[in-house]
Fold each of these.
Amino acid sequence: MFKSRFLAWGTMLAIFAGFSLPLTAQTKTNIAADSLTTAKRISAASGRPIFAIAGQST
Amino acid sequence: MAQFVPIKLDVSSPEYAQWRRDHTPDGNGIPQLFIVRADGETLYGRSGSLRGPDLPNMLISALQNSGRILSAREAQSLVEAADKFTQEKNKGNFESAIKAISRVRKIGEPGQIRSYSEPALRVNRLVIETADEVRNQLKKLANQIETDQADIKLKAMLGYLKLREDFGALKMVKPDLAAFQKKYTLKDNKQLAREAKIIESANQANTKSKKTRAIATLTELIGETEIEPVRKEAEKKLSALQQELDAG
């Protein structure tokens, strides 16, 4: 079950990566507080909604 | 996807704990997907991945409920307009304030901009607050005009004219000002409204030629009016204008 959840999360991220994404709010390493803060700030400033995926880090 | 701000959350992090309190998902499994609008409203929050066309369909639907997305330039325009509006309004320069806020009309009508960004929400809030202030003032003036006392009626009529002068360009209050005009400046109050307008125009005279013209119209008004408070107010204004002109 853990493996299938991890695979599902990985699939979602692959779909994500398939689009052209502005990376200013996305970190490539572990999530830090300022990343979510940055995401909220960008969202509030521009009106763009946040798309968040929550899962377990590897 | 450039229309979203993507983020990955680790469920073991304290940030996720706070996030979950603010945006409780439907279900406890992982992964969890969230779409949160710019003003913090949760548009989507569920556990489980979406397969096939479900994900893009969900994203499209979320975007349709996310309001207008601003460019950096648009956002900056709104911030500047809101700052200028506040600054001018605090100085009592209402016409300048409304002119400043009206510059963002190409993004949306101020007060009704369909964006959930903070700059847009702030502009809307400022305009709506101002519109409410104008409406409250109109209610007070309406009560005063409905009295039998001529001096109070005149004061209310002058108040209405000043309000119209200051806020007439604000689209949100145009229907309210028009309704007041229709109800209170016609029929029985027509003469009072006409004469009050002459006094208000004199109040607005800010150049030598306008003041000179105002003195002429006030002198004529004083000779013609049958309303005692109008005569007194006109005489008071006439005297003030003459002093201003004499002082050079």
Amino acid sequence: MSAPAKLPRWADLVLLPAVSLAAALLLSAGLVAVMGESPVTALRLLFAGAFGTGDAIGYTLYYATNFIFTGLAVAVAYHAGLFNIGAEGQAYIGGLGVGLVCLAGGSWPAWVVLPLAVAAGAGFGAAWAFIPAWLQARRGSHVVITTIMFNFIAAALMTYLLVNVLIKPGQQSPESREFGANAVLPAVHGLLAKLGFEVAASPLNLAFGIALAAGGLVWVLLWRTRWGYRLRVAGANPAAAVYAGINPGRITIGAMLLSGALAGGLGLNELAGSQHRILLDFPGGAGFVGIAVALMGRNHPVGICAAAVLFGALYQGGSQLSFDLPRINRDLVVVIQGLVILFCGAMENVWRGPLAALLARLRVESRESRGESQK
Amino acid sequence: MSVSPERVPALDLRGIDKRFGPVHANRAVSFAVRAGTIHGLIGENGAGKSTLMNIVYGLQSPDAGTLLVQGREVHFRHPREAIAAGIGMVHQHFMLVENFTALENLLLADGAAAGSAAGRAAAREKWDRLALDHGLDVPLDAVVGELPVGVQQRLEILKALGRKAEILVLDEPTAVLTPAEATQLFQLLGRLRAQGKTVILVTHKLREIMAVTDRVTVMRQGAVVAELDTAATSLRELAEKMVGRSVLLQVEKGPGFPREVLLEVEQLAASDDRGVPRVKGISFQVRAGEIVGIAGVAGNGQSELLETLAGIRTPTGGAIRLAGRDVAGDDPAQRRRLGLAHVPEDRLKLGVVAAFAAEDNLILGQQERPEFGRGVLLDRRAIAAGCRQAMAEYDVRPGDPRLRLGAFSGGNQQKLVMAREIGAGPQVLLVGQPTRGVDIGAIEFIHRRLVALRDAGKAVLLVSVELDEILGLADRILVMNGGEIMGELPRAEATEEKLGLLMAGVRAEAGHED
């Protein structure tokens, strides 16, 4: 009886997220006003901080890269009917794979190290997702619970490794030594400089391109291959999958492996692309933001890329905002990000009904006015 | 037709009009329902019956037209207002909380506080009396989920009566009932009429209309096409008005020429999901060029038998041979490759993915076939072309391969499933309840296809709870009861009486069995 109201496709994909975003920003503006700052100024600073200069755009896209990887990871699992909350841990362990290859490949040429680093990031991430996947497929342990637990295990494992094993000798902070120059993903400003374009320096690196390519690959896999078809059937109607001769357990494992591999891409961007060493807590919650990104992007690669840029802009513009307006501190920026997640992810269906009613009324009115003009 | 004094109609619809985007669901619908009668509303799926009843119940508001209840004009914006005006509705899918007791569900409907023991006792007394007054036997303390559907339906009716409903709308009430339960329901409706209630029976089953209604309104494509006194009409006339052309109620079918055995089942046993044995060592054969019908009251093991044959359920014993090869250990994909196709009983649960486009549903189970792609890739163009062709051949409307499957009517969904399974070119076709929730025009079409498949020398195993369907299609009839085959009859010897006895578990007399 209370099925969600049907919206036309364009409204579902564009109008609804836009309305949700506007509502979140409006509420944030109210908060800013309460803090005694001008909401207009704050919004302008936020926007300028994210897109105003070349390096601002670079930072925005650099953050967006993480969110594309984790958003895709969540979306692939979602299409198989699985809720992967473990992108954070899979990204963390994926980064370990990237870092180990980069540390080990001291004297190898870049064209050997970097592809190996990509493979290791994907492989470690997939391996970390495999255990919950196997437990789900064979023992029925719910993947939501196990992936959450595996986030904690990943964090504890990484702390142990960085404090006791990988730490650079003779220093206090739990970080590995720096990667060699051959084990660093080229920065975008460096690449463009070679082509004769001068852009401001930023941590934006080749991982951004890899993320976009991963998005394309996910699209092809899900919507253009027989395996993707099987995966989507198993996710949409498991009983029909069995009827169609599809083994749901095998799909669960395959989807989670791909999901974990995609999450591992975050390690590539953060470690090989920007930090050039293994350090503590580098995923920084991006695995969880990926859930919001996938929700807002309708679990479609194009939507995910757009939503990732939005969240990247909030990260980058938000830190600029707290820098420029002293009364708006880092915590308020987190509040604003939280509001966007709340409105775009969790409360979207609040707007769906009224919006559908409004569109239906507009359509009837336009038809009536057409009908009258014909008379 | 009677010369009764001019009474105010219980329900009077005047020019009700409703559009959903391009779909004109109701076109200036006008008719009146006399108080104290059972009024039938029939039409094929998609004829606009449900929309109309949703308007009557306040779930939707009409674009134009007026609605009069007991002569008073009303404008419902919410079911609450319809209930207050004395309209009760029993939906096809019950609105009950399954893990509550019957009494708790009734308290919920009342909106009454169930907290105090005194309140509960008072409520129990009230509902007990109401149930007694109307001859509704409902165990108030039973958990609803454990009650048979027929009893759940009675609970829904009781709920509506408790809200002082004078007009009771029942939407396809017999779709989930056994024949015996349906008979009980009709007796109940008769009693309600005798007490002065007005009943609107929405259905697409003509026999029910003929059996219980006083008057009948026929809808087609959103408009009322006929309003008749039931006593003055016939099955055939109603069917023609409903479909808009003359229809065959009986399939034309020549004699069959059975050849070699294609499907052989020996001492097959299977259990349901809870481990209760449902199929208890049954054996039979299906030959090329024949339709074997399995008759029986729903829930006697037919569903488990079909699922076991299709490979969805693992047998607990026995053998299944497909063209001589034992397939009991093979999964559904392997059996499909050996020439088995399956139209499942529960279309929406097993046979389709409602959220997918029609074209994506047409490759379900056949996603690995070479004609739908190259290597690991799918060929979208070939899939769309195949779907368009199947839609034309099976007269699926609308003929749009990209349309979401859930947006098609039940009959068109079933035609798509038939197109897919027959299109796979099977040697053996398993069919479960092929016309459940399907309108008359499509039923005729589906039956013809099954006979054509038989005439092409394929083996068809038909499981149906509709005796008419079994008698109309099968060459040989097996009757299941309690997980066993009670007897087998060639079509020529089968009568409703003989089958009815077997269905009730009374074995055929000795001498017939060998």
